[in-house]
Write a structure and sequence with these properties.
The complex is a heterodimer.
Chain A: E1 11-12, H1 19-26, H2 58-70, H3 73-76, H4 81-89, H5 96-105
Chain B: E1 9-18, E2 38-42, E3 45-53, H1 61-75, E4 81-82, E5 88-89, H2 92-100, H3 104-114, E6 117-126, H4 128-138, H5 140-149, H6 158-187, E7 193-196, E8 204-213, H7 217-231, E9 235-243
Helix pairs in contact in B: 4-5, 5-6
Classes of the chains: A mainly alpha, B alpha+beta.
Chain lengths: ~130, ~260
């Protein structure tokens, strides 16, 4: 759960794409090589990373019910939303919150997550120095 | 050019670009340690490749990030057709003989079409407590079920809880659809195409990929900012980009 600072800018602009975003993007988007190449394709082992498609399950339902039960309905209206949310969730704020939220719902540890926020700008192609 | 292939190495392919692109010598790809990235050219097009050992699996976080960063950094400068993670060919010759040669015209046309265009991704997630409150206010059945479970033991009210959760899940799905449509309409003037991504989390509000003229990126971001402000209490909105056109370079209909 991410909560914006009250009155602050509303759009998050993370410095680099998080690993969860990368997984969603490059594992099932883009051109499929098999459609173009047959003979020389190598079936290299890919460490499988759950593409995290949501399939609602009983666990999801129970979790929603529990979260709903925890809502304090009457008096919460007057509160500012950020305080309210922070209070109830133990105040996990900031950008990391999105990812930690994911982990709650995906019980199997995803090894790829551990080093999220890997940020190596260097080494990307810049265009166009000398070729080697 | 590319190093000769040994039986123990293959050529990892990242994407297809115009042939007049130059790759920076410090560009690094997947693998540990990562190999330099090379461009294998054929007529008007080229493929970004790097050598990888075949006896080790790919897919470490660094591999995934390297793949995307190379493509996104490339897309910021030139058109690129991103290839899905994990494409490895056994020999350098195959890059031309099987990939670039037979599909040259198709790839060249797609690159022309993508020239000056990049992808942006707008992702939103509901603020849980706010969206749950909305559901309870809008759905009397949900409110009634909630009253029945409050303070009761989870075991004794398991069936009611499942019913309630299912209603909430459906209600959020309906909100997702409506909010996604509203966002797509709002951003339509700034993009050439939009593609809705399916949710990857049950509280996802929206995942919308947009193909945008590179010059209009700032305008788009401004529009997203306005939406984010109007949604601030209920949805946390993020914008990613410029990215390679992952959602718009598809195999059946290119580019």
């Amino acid at each position: 759960m991410t909560v914006q600072p009250a009155g602050g800018g509303a759009v998050e602009r993370p410095g680099s794409t998080s690993l969860a975003d990368v997984i969603d993007t490059i594992l099932d988007k883009g051109l499929v090589i098999d459609a173009y190449v047959n003979v020389s394709l190598v079936g290299i082992q890919i460490l499988t990373v759950d593409a995290r498609v949501v399939v609602a399950s009983v666990d999801t339902y129970l979790r929603f019910a529990e979260a709903t039960e925890r809502l304090s309905l009457g008096d919460a209206r007057g509160q500012g939303v950020p305080e309210m949310v922070q209070g109830a969730l133990g105040g996990s704020g900031g950008q990391a919150a999105l990812d930690s939220g994911d982990q709650t719902f995906h019980e199997e540890p995803e090894p790829a997550r551990e080093k999220s926020e890997a940020d190596s700008e260097e080494g990307t192609p810049r265009r166009f120095h000398e070729r080697d | 050019m590319t190093q000769p292939a040994g039986a123990d190495h293959g050529f990892y392919v990242y994407g297809v670009v115009p042939a007049d692109v130059e790759v920076s010598p410090d560009a690094r790809g997947v693998g540990d340690p990562p190999s330099p990235v090379d461009l294998v050219r054929h007529r008007e097009i080229g493929a970004l490749v790097s050598k990888v050992p075949l006896d080790r699996p790919l897919g470490r976080p660094d591999d995934l990030v390297a793949h995307e960063q190379l493509l996104d950094a490339t897309a910021a400068e030139v058109p690129v057709l991103p290839i899905r993670f994990g494409a490895v060919l056994s020999q350098a010759e195959a890059v031309v003989e099987e990939l670039l040669g037979p599909h040259h015209d198709e790839f060249a046309a797609a690159l022309k079409e993508l020239d000056g265009r990049v992808e942006y991704l707008v992702k939103g997630r509901y603020v849980e407590q706010v969206v749950l409150r909305e559901v309870l206010e809008e759905n009397p059945e949900a409110a009634r079920l909630r009253e029945q479970i409050v303070g009761q033991s989870a075991e004794a009210t398991r069936d009611l809880r499942i019913q309630l959760g299912e209603i909430i899940n459906q209600a959020i799905a309906a909100k997702r659809e409506a909010d996604t449509r509203a966002l797509a309409e709002r951003l339509q003037p700034y993009c050439l195409q939009a593609a809705v991504r399916p949710p990857t989390h049950e509280q996802d509000a929206v995942q919308l990929a947009l193909l945008v003229e590179t010059d209009r990126g700032p305008e788009l971001e401004e529009a997203v900012q306005e939406v984010a402000e109007s949604w601030a209490e209920r949805v946390t909105l993020r914008v990613l980009g410029p990215l390679a056109p992952y959602d718009f370079a598809t195999t059946s209909r290119q580019g």
